[in-house]
Amino acid sequence: MSIEFANSPQLQKFKLLLVEDDKAIVEGLEYYLTQEGFEVSCCYNVKSAIDLVGKTSFDLAILDIALPDGNGYDLCKRIKKMGDIPVIFLTARDDEGSIVMGLDIGADDYITKPFRVRELHSRIKSVLRRTGKANKNINEDIITIDNITVNLKEGKVIKNGNIIFLTALEYRLFLTLLQNSGRILSRNQLLEYIWDVSGDFVNDNTLTVYIKRLREKIEDDPQNPNIIKTVRGLGYQIESRSIN
């Protein structure tokens, strides 16, 4: 089996900048987001963050507001001037004035502490999609795997020349597996990827149904799947990949 991303280089990880002076939060988020496939750089103050942004290209920045040598508002302004980097504020300041100020100066989202890490993960994905960063690793709009072609621009899946109708969640699930080909995704990871803050929610039981329905539509023999493999006790995987 081979997967071709038309004229695309090796897929890269999204690079996140995390600026937070609470080391417990930093350690927890760094571990979680790294496990989810992100490349995370951590800073504990404004100065180190500005230095790092000047040297490294980031896809998104997560900023606290109260920092030892300044504040996240000023840092957000500096980051926005230095490049097209989406910003999410992650802060204990939950008053309306702070939220409005954060959004007014250019932040793409605002999350208050205490927070749920799954919600933060979903907000990150949502911001990456809205700002066009989510497709940065695919130069063209076509993914081909065996006799299946996915047209990303048109949102179409074609098998043997015929269009296959996928629901929005089936399409999102298939694209998630394709874009993580070669990597085993646990059921919890898949739930994270296809759950969205807009209201679409999939639980563990319905995930099984979606996998079954997706296989029925794309596999030649759904009972013996050749594309979406089950890795017993670990999750699901589209195994090998050849990128040209």
Fold and architecture overview:
It is elongated and about 60 Å long. Helix content is 38%, strand content 21%. The protein contains eight helices and 14 strands. The strands form four sheets. A five-stranded antiparallel sheet has the order 1-9-10-11-12, with no helix packed on it. Strands 3-2-4-7-8 form a five-stranded parallel sheet, sandwiched between helices. Strands 5-6 form a two-stranded antiparallel ribbon. Strand 10 (148-151) and strand 11 form a beta hairpin. The protein has two domains: 15-135, Response regulator (Rossmann fold, 3-Layer(aba) Sandwich); 141-237, Orthogonal Bundle (Arc Repressor Mutant, subunit A), CATH 1.10.10.10. With 244 residues, it is of the alpha/beta class. The relative contact order is 0.14. It has helices at 23-35, 46-55, 72-82, 96-104, 117-130, 168-179, 187-194, 204-218; strands at 3-5, 15-19, 39-43, 60-63, 66-67, 70-71, 87-91, 109-112, 142-145, 148-151, 156-159, 162-164, 229-231, 235-237. InterPro entries: CheY-like_superfamily, OmpR/PhoB-type_DNA-bd, Sig_transdc_resp-reg_C-effctor, Sig_transdc_resp-reg_receiver, WalR-like, WH-like_DNA-bd_sf. This is Stage 0 sporulation protein A homolog. Residues 15-128 form the Response regulatory domain. It holds the Pfam family Response_reg. Residues 140-240 form the OmpR/PhoB-type domain.
